[in-house]
Design brief:
With 70 residues, the chain is mainly beta. It is built from no helices and 5 strands. A 3-stranded antiparallel β-sheet has the order 3-4-5, with no helix packed on it.
Length: 70
């Protein structure tokens, strides 16, 4: 189950000039692709349990945040 909405905002902590870094993605052993992703070094709210990881990435003004649950 997922839900999404469009939100146009700026990150509170910018990703380092949008530098892309290569990463190998293995799609369930069926194919391998080079993917580009953004990187940053900063402090974020983070938590984990036995079967999950969660991180909060705030937007400018710290009123809203993107919350990712893996």
């Amino acid at each position: 189950i997922s839900s999404s909405a469009f939100f146009s905002g700026h990150w509170a902590n910018n990703f380092e000039n949008y530098i892309y870094a290569p990463f190998i993605l293995d799609s369930l052993g069926k194919s391998i692709a080079n993917v580009k992703y953004l990187t940053t070094s900063n402090y974020f709210k983070y938590g984990e349990g036995e079967n999950y990881q969660i991180i909060e990435i705030p937007y400018e003004g710290y009123k809203f945040a993107l919350i990712l649950i893996l």
